[in-house]
Amino acid sequence: MLNRILWAALVAGIVGGLATAALQHFTTTPLILEAELYEGGAPATASPASLDSVTFGGARLILAHSGHEHAEDGEAAWAPADGIERTLYTSVATIGTAFGFALILLSAMILANVRITARTGLLWGLAGFVAAGLAPALGLAPELPGSAAADLGARQLWWLGTAVATAAGLWLALRVSSLPAIGAGIALMILPHLIGAPHPEGFASTVPAELAGHFAAASLVTMAVVWVLAGTLAGYVWERGEVRQGATAAA
């Protein structure tokens, strides 16, 4: 059982992660590189390079809501060099993320005692995106370097609580499905937003609003893709394994 889970998650992680990394390369990465020109309060007279002239390297993983961090001594934190090095690091991180998502989805489907197929994997992947991507984004939109943000620890705590509450709410509403469970599930999903996400005192940002809005939309689409691919591919590999096992047993 464990070997089957790891194999299905590994295939889903590699294939889904590479596909998502390719999507990031042409969508979110150029936006991050453009935003880095404004980070640190670039003067208004500076002429940012156009996207056409930017080297399309890798960039930080956009699946988490994090700002640009710096070392405590004031120097910029280490980051891979532009070009192939950044692309490689981003691709590896994205593959690891897809692998983790596939493991979570397979484990949840096994615990729920559902028949694991590509279709059920897709549906559970969509639920994972709602819990870990869409719901937290209602309070904390994906951020570009240079965006104003509250304390990182407070944001991470709120994000985690929102993801867990939304996942539990979806489970109650869609799996238990009794009237009290649906009501409790809806209440759980609403609760984090009633508490409110942590935000900075002011919303001053060095990043143009149009760039930030484009990035938030592209990030959510990319996150939806990686969740759906992870679930669908893991379900497909698991289903094919069952077919092979059945054929072997019949022989």
What report would you give on this structure?
66% of the residues lie in helices and 0% in strands. It is mainly α and 251 residues long. Helix 1 crosses helix 3 (84-111), helix 2 runs antiparallel to helix 7 and helix 3 (84-111) packs across helix 4 (118-137). The chain is flat and about 65 Å long.
Question: Can you tag this structure with a few keywords?
Answer:
251 residues
Q: Structural class of the secondary elements? A: mainly alpha
What kind of assembly state do the chains in view correspond to? single chain
Helix content: 55-70%
Provide a count of the helices: 7
Strand fraction band? under 5%
Shape: flat
Taking the sheet with the most strands, its summary is: none
Number of strand elements: 0
Distance between the termini: 21 Å
Order of helices and strands: HHHHHHH
Taking pLDDT < 50 over at least 5 consecutive residues as the criterion, the unreliable ranges are: 42-73
Radius of gyration: 20 Å
Q: What is the arithmetic mean of pLDDT?
A: 82
